[in-house]
Each structure stands twice: as structure tokens, then as C-alpha cells.
Amino acid sequence: MIGTVHCEWIIYDSFSLKDKRSVMKRITARVRQQYNVAISELDFQDSWQRAKIGIVTISSGKIQAEKELNRVLAFIDSFPEIERTVTVYEWL
């Protein structure tokens, strides 16, 4: 089972693309270190307070994949400098 999540972030303390990329790099690096997922920025690369992120995991079943994705999203939500707005799950 392949589970994917697309979510949009608002980065409130970002006043330039450099600020945004600094926050994004720190969060995505920590996610890659702690969880068995792939994460990447998908859209809004030129917008300095908005981002769209894709997260993918592969598991033997939907329940395990969903648990892993929910753990990652909970971890991301623990960062005070971002707010997750739109979240869409897909299963392949």
C-alpha cells in the first residue's frame, strides 16, 4: 500500500524566500531523519509564506501507512512557525 499526503502550509514568520527555505529545510530534514517517508515541496516555490508539501510512505497495509503519515503530520504540527491548512490523503 502506498499512502500519500499533500498538505499546504502557511509560514507566518517568513518575510523572504530565504526565510521560507530555512524553515522548510529544517522541518523536512527532521522528518526524513525520524520517519520512514519521502517528503518534498510540490508547489508555491516562489511564494514566501505558502508551501505545498507531499509526503509518501509504503507499507504492507493501509492501516500501517495511515498511522505513519498521521505521526508525521502530528510532528509537523508541533512546529509553531507553520500552520497546516489543506490536507489530502491518497491511497494507491
Automatic annotation (TrEMBL):
SUPFAM superfamilies: Hypothetical protein TT1725. This is DUF503 family protein. The lineage of its organism: Bacteria, Bacillati, Bacillota, Bacilli, Bacillales. It holds the Pfam family DUF503.
